[in-house]
Each structure stands twice: as C-alpha cells, then as structure tokens.
Design goal:
The structure is a single chain. By secondary structure, the chain is an alpha+beta fold. The chain has one domain. It contains three helices and 13 strands. The strands form two sheets. Strands 1, 2, 3, 4, 5, 6, 7, 8, 9, 12 and 13 form an eleven-stranded mixed sheet that branches. Strands 10-11 form a two-stranded antiparallel ribbon. Strand 2 and strand 3 form a beta hairpin.
Length: 199
C-alpha cells in the first residue's frame, strides 16, 4: 500500500468524529443559543449623556462617550450617533459573565456611576453627567438588539418622563454597542444581579 494512501486512511476516524460533533455558528454556541460577546474599552473623561431628540414628545436616550465627543450631538441624529464607534448606549439590566465568573461578577449599566450634577451638553437639548469609572479604567462593550431600548417620553400634561414600552426606542437601528461596568456580587446576593462596584 502506498504511503499516501496509508496517511489518508489514518485520517478517516478523526474526520468522521468531526462531522458528528456539534458546531457553533458565529456568535452562537453549539446548542444555537446566542453567546455574550464582550469587548473592553477605555474612555478619556467618560460622560453619560441624556440625549433628547428634537421635537415635542421625542425620546431621551442615555448615551456614553468621551467628553470631547459632545460636539457630535449638535450635528448627528440618534441613528447616526448609534453607528459611531466612539459612542455607546447605556447598558440595560445586569448580565452574567460567561463561564465560571457568572456567580462572582455581573455586567451592569454604568448609569449608577454617574455624578449627580448635570450640565448642558452644548446642543441646546441634552445634558450630561460625569461617570466615575472603576479603578482599572475599563468599561465592557456588548452588542445588543436595539429592540430592547425604549423611548423615555414626556407624559402628556405632566413633568418628567415615562418609558413607552409599545415602540422600538431606536427606529432604524438593528443593534447597538451597549456599555457596562463590572460589578462584584456579594455571596449573599449571588443570582440577584446586584453588588458593589468593583474597585
């Protein structure tokens, strides 16, 4: 038997095993469940922006960016802002980290880290507050469906805002780069998604 044929026959068991193994698609594990893909980013002088669109009854959306990016608010629409790599959406809820750290750490929206003082953002409609970034200086970026983000709209005849759960708050946008901070979960709070900010 020729050496080349022997080599090919020796590969058959491995090839057969590979065909029967479950395969994961991009962004999904072998079972088809969507995977949490996490990136990290450092922002110079990060701020939480309460961005109000033009016109009565329009949305207020919470965005995160470096303070030096505030001039973008004067010239870009919400859809254009959401597509910029230097602009992020404030993350929703608390996400468990994949793997063994899921019981120790959570990813939480950074709005809890915003300072109490709001300042005009320079576009005549929006305000911003400084973010207190955890000591490593890193924030965590997660790609999320825009369908989960809802408008904060002014209630008719009332001051303040309410959430409109009937409509997609980011029309024309399929997904957003949402930003989170890492939170440490106390042993008594595991599974609750709460905890002190990791310093």
């Amino acid at each position: 038997m020729k050496p080349l044929l022997l080599f090919a026959l020796s590969l058959l068991p491995a090839a057969a095993a590979a065909q029967h193994a479950p395969k994961g698609r991009h962004g999904r594990d072998a079972s088809g469940e969507a995977q949490l893909v996490i990136g990290r980013v450092k922002l110079d002088d990060p701020v939480l922006v309460f961005y109000r669109q033009e016109g009565p009854g329009k949305a207020v959306q919470q965005l995160v960016m470096s303070k030096n990016q505030l001039p973008l608010l004067r010239t870009l629409t919400l859809e254009e802002l959401a597509q910029r790599r230097e602009v992020f959406v404030d993350g929703l809820s608390s996400l468990a980290l994949p793997g063994t750290d899921a019981q120790k750490f959570r990813l939480s929206g950074p709005s809890l880290l915003a300072g109490a003082e709001r300042r005009p953002a320079g576009d005549g409609r929006s305000t911003y507050a400084r973010l207190k970034v955890p000591s490593p200086g890193e924030l965590y970026v997660v790609r999320e469906s825009a369908e989960e983000y809802r408008h904060f709209v002014g209630a008719p005849g009332q001051q303040g805002s309410r959430i409109d759960f009937q409509t997609n708050g980011l029309p024309g946008i399929d997904s957003v780069r949402a930003i989170y901070t890492l939170r440490k979960i106390d042993a008594a709070e595991r599974g609750a998604g709460e905890g002190a900010t990791l310093r």
